[in-house]
Amino acid sequence: MSKDMTYYLRFNGILHQTSCVGTLQNRVSKWKNHDLFKKTFALMLQIHVSKRLWSYGVLTAVYLIYCLLICVLDFKSPFKVLQVTSPKLAHLKVFECSCSCFVHLPSLKWGLIPELSNAFF
Predict the structure, then answer these.
(1) Which of 5, 26, 67, 94 is the most exposed place for a label (fewest CB within 10 A)?
(2) Do 35 and 28 contact (CB within 8 A), yes or no?
């Protein structure tokens, strides 16, 4: 890493760290990034917005994850654990959400009934 980059990171309060390939830390971060990508993609696909708004989709997905209840935290949100107060959710808007419903049957070759029914929430 260049001297200029090191100075830039220090000046902006960013701590540069590296890790070894193939460690548990890398697997967890890879899984979290993949999970974030899936949630962002689902949001963006659902509301049919332009790809240039992808950064806002990521921010929204991170915010929603931050407000979700997590069983590891005794069904509290990370927001509540860190801020000691529940997040305010009144400002969130509900939009029409369609989904495809599948029925899992282990006896079938593919495990799912081929017919789907669309549902709206």
Answers:
(1) 94
(2) no
Judged by DSSP in three states, 21 sits in: coil
What is the Rg, in whole angstroms, of the alpha carbon atoms belonging to the chain? 20
* CA-angle at 116, arms to 107 and 108, nearest 5°: 10
Which residues in the chain land under pLDDT 50? 111-112, 114, 119-121
Cα–Cα distance for residue pair 121/101, rounded to 1 Å? 12
The tokens 């509540």 sit on which residue? Answer: 80
Sequence-separated contacts (24+) of 26-30 with Cβ below 8 Å: none
Residues recorded for the chain: 121
Given the structure tokens 């029409």, which residue do they identify?
Answer: 96
Judged by DSSP in three states, 104 sits in strand
Which residue intervals of the chain are DSSP H helices?
A: 3-11, 24-47, 54-67, 78-83
Tell me the two tokens of residue 1: 């890493």
